[in-house]
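Chapter summary example: a protein plus iron/sulfur cluster.
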Amino acid sequence: MGKTEEEIVSAMGERYDVMLHVYMEGIEEETRSVSGLTGGEGYRLMKYEEKHSGGLYPRAAARAMGIANVNASMGRIVAAPTAGSCGILPATLISLAEQHHKGKEEVVNCLFTASFIGEAIAENASLSGAEGGCQAECGSAAAMAAGAGVELCGGTPGQAADAAAFALEAVMGLVCDPVAGLVECPCIKRNAFGTVQALLAIDMALAGIKSIIPADEVITAMGEVGRSIPESLRETARGGIAATPTGKKIAERLTKSSDPHFPS
Ligand code: SF4
């Protein structure tokens, strides 16, 4: 890229700053989406978690949905790797950093680990829901978060690769089926589940559980599965959740709405 190490670290630091900002913003209030279809999921889970002391998993999941809520309201997020899956990586890493008292520099270093896993998936499979289904978006984000999280917790590169493999295997074949073509339903909740998958993958790898299939083979398999997913289940909003009776009704209502974002 013709950039110095200092410039690259500084650019990653700027992304971290945006992630941290949206991480806080997403759970502060009931952010509504532009369509009105979703909003406040992250805020509500966080309030529930505070009342019931649910711990790291629901707290991180609330933050992931809060970030996805901000995305659906057209707020500023970091696509990591995509806008639809933007909550998983920051919610996982920043929640873990909070738990283990890690600072910005350590999280930024781990974002490079996440980037390399994302790059390997982009090169050998896909990061796009339209190409590979949601396994390529939320699955890749979970794999990136899992690998980076292992590093943040002091694990080895081998454990990071194992955690990435676990997270991808967990969602192998997951389709992309957004209701009305909007990145809201089921996307926002998939960010919550992707975060919990990443956290569990981290714990499993750190516990010494090995991936039977090497991470690079899992990535290649994910790409092959993605190519075999029918077009109706690759971001066309013609299958899966989008094609349920309720999903279709919502799409019809939004299309007929006088809202300028949904011209009839
Ligand atoms: S369902 Fe499709 S649009 Fe929604 S997050 Fe997954 S890949 Fe992205």
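Key point: The chain has a mean pLDDT of 95.
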